[in-house]
Structure prediction request, 194 residues.
Amino acid sequence: MRFKSEVVEMSKGMKLAAIALYLILVGFGVYVLFHHNFIIVLFFAALTARGLFMLLRYFLMRERRNGWDMIGGIINIAIGLIMFLGSDDTQLLGIRLVELLVAMWAIINGVTNILGSFVLKKQGIKLWTILLALGIISFACGAVIVFVPLLATNVVTTVISVFMGIALIMGGLLGLTSALSGREAYADAQDIVE
Prediction:
């Protein structure tokens, strides 16, 4: 299968708008790349938006109304707004709670893998050491999150910010290249040619 594509000439106004949009995207990418805490604010904004979507779905889809959508929407909006509009301490508390949940999962997963590796060893399975190593790594990651929280927060936000910043910059540069040429290629998934 291949997509039928077409190249469309952009009008002057559309070209200027596209150039402005892609320059903003590149600038936003650079900002995210160097301001790692922004990703935290973005997460809480997304949580609020998710809550709004759940409430809209509850009120607009009457034939499929689900009370959990209303409850989940209210909770998401409340948590998102409290964290988004709250002080830095409030935001750090929210992040810390998420980190502790991840840490609990990692520690429990690590212990389970370590114990499981010894069962595999008793059964004579030669690759039991791989499960043991994964268990130790998982347990260690969970322990680092619990006992060195500032390091964990900084590493997670830095890694996510760097990847997101690079993706935004690359997407913006790609779109900018297309806009500067004055032509834009469209691939329409509905026009699949076999």
Notes: The chain has one domain: 11-193.
